[in-house]
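Collaboration report, partner site 2.

Our partner group contributed sequences for two proteins of shared interest, and the home lab folded both. The records are reproduced in the order in which they were received, starting with the first partner submission.
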Amino acid sequence: MTNPTPPSDPSNAAALALSLAYAARAVTPPNPSVGCVIVDGQRILGQGQTQRAGGPHAEIMALQDAAAKGYPVKGATAYVTLEPCSHHGRTGPCCDALIAAGIKKVVASIADPNPLVAGQGFERLRAAGIEVEVGPGAAESRELNIGFFSRMVRKTPWVRMKIAASLDGVTALDNGQSQWITSPDARADGHAWRARAGAILTGIGTVLQDNPRLDVRLVDTPRQPYRIIVDSQLQTPADAQIFKSGGAIWIYTAVRDEPREAALKALGATVSYLPNAQGKVDLAALMQDLARREINELHVEAGNKLNGSLIREGLVDEILVYLAPKLLGAGQGMASFGPLQQLSDALPLRFLSTEMVGADLRVLARGVGRDQF
């Protein structure tokens, strides 16, 4: 899937609900992005989309919209892109609000994978005499919320690795210089992908070499993703740019160093000790920890060593590559892993999209079978 665009047929209630969900995707994490449209025949009574975490869900927004317009919704049909929730989380159950409003029918795209819901919303609606239809827009809704589905089903985020490279696959010169291989258009597009993620991950090598801020600056965003540093030896300098743009920073390390840890915590960082048997950060355990911290989509912008480690451990779901129309010859590659002994050991991918972004080519490829959960 490319960076998604809304469906093109707003006259269809299910398509309109999906377009509302698409428009909310940068706002809702860690909640799924959901749209809701309430109709009576051919007339739209109310519509809404999920707000920031802790705010109203799509169904509540649609009911409020109808009320603000003076439209009664008793006997109406609600089109929603995800099963209405049935539990008390940050907000009350949406299915109860639909029942209380007198909705006659609910058309939902797909069941909620959250174990706290998982069909119970549909059961509660049916028990109240509401007709329930499931299916329209299911694939689109799941794809839009693939990170949420991943966190709920696999207990890990959906991991997307972003790489900027020359046409011959070089991401940095031998001397480490890498800014900028791709065009301003590609960099802005990359920031749009950052904006939809719950967190952005990099390694200590990138922090020391490039000193990035890792925030979203080149596109408008209602929130900043968390920033994560994989720093086995706790080498993150206190004057790193990443501390100067505000927002939460999580550092994962494999060593105990109380003075350094205290200095980083004084800057607002959260430091977690997560070693593996080799004295490095346990990357698989890191992914599980990020899921516990409610990260749906993880956007990786790292060097070839960390990229290679993530690929080698089978933790990458999708690769987003921007290829610049230039050749750089000898230099650092996209990911350092292997060497493989035979071609059949290659990581199998399938192309989802190819698109020109300014002068550069954007390629989105997904690991074969990674979305089968």
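Second partner submission, folded after the first:
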Amino acid sequence: MKSHTLTLLLISPPPKRCRPKAQQLQEIRVCTNRTCRRQGSFQTLETLSGLAPPNVAIKSCGCLGRCGGGPNLVVLPDGLIVSHCGTAARAAEVMVSLFADGDSKTSLDALALRKRADIEFEKRNFTDAELLLSQAIDLKPFGGIHVTFKCRSFVRLELGNYYGALEDAREALTLAPGYSEAYICQGDAFLALQQLDSAEQSYLASLDIDPSIRHSKSFKARITKLQEKLAAANTSS
């Protein structure tokens, strides 16, 4: 019965559940139309996405009508337009002034460490990646730290530190209760620890927040792995 339930996760919407309570969402839209794009708006979009607190969504948009002063962005729901946001430093200053009390340089430094950790992770230098992410967390940036905890959770899984990975996933969820990827991390840690029911609940929570992941090959692989472990546990019992 459990295996049948897991299979249904991949082919039909999950039953209605009580979603984790997320913070009230605000949004920044960055113009990526032709003129702003030439002025560096994609860099602005990337920087803001990396620095954003959990309750601030970052998206691209079309022309905001101020091409001469770009790159431009608009803050919703207030409709405030901010111009001349073509550098990482300027983007960080805007984020701090709008949503946080903190040092924009410190947060940029933390983001740079996270990017370096991504490179080391791709090279499978997991120990170096963990060190860089820990340094980023220690800087206490005003935003993006929930992503850093999620990233370190993935790294610690690769290092075999399953309890550390679980702790990081939970920390990410404390900071961002509606963070689907952190639930996946939590599920992966539970799966590694053979806590199969808890792994299933974490994957369900992730799917409930973002139903589109049902079509992801990596999510399907996780469900298949969980099914196999459940079947093995049922056989041995």
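Feedback sent to the partner group on the second submission included the following. The CA atoms of residues 229 and 235 lie 10 Å apart. Confidence is low (pLDDT under 50) at residues 11-23.
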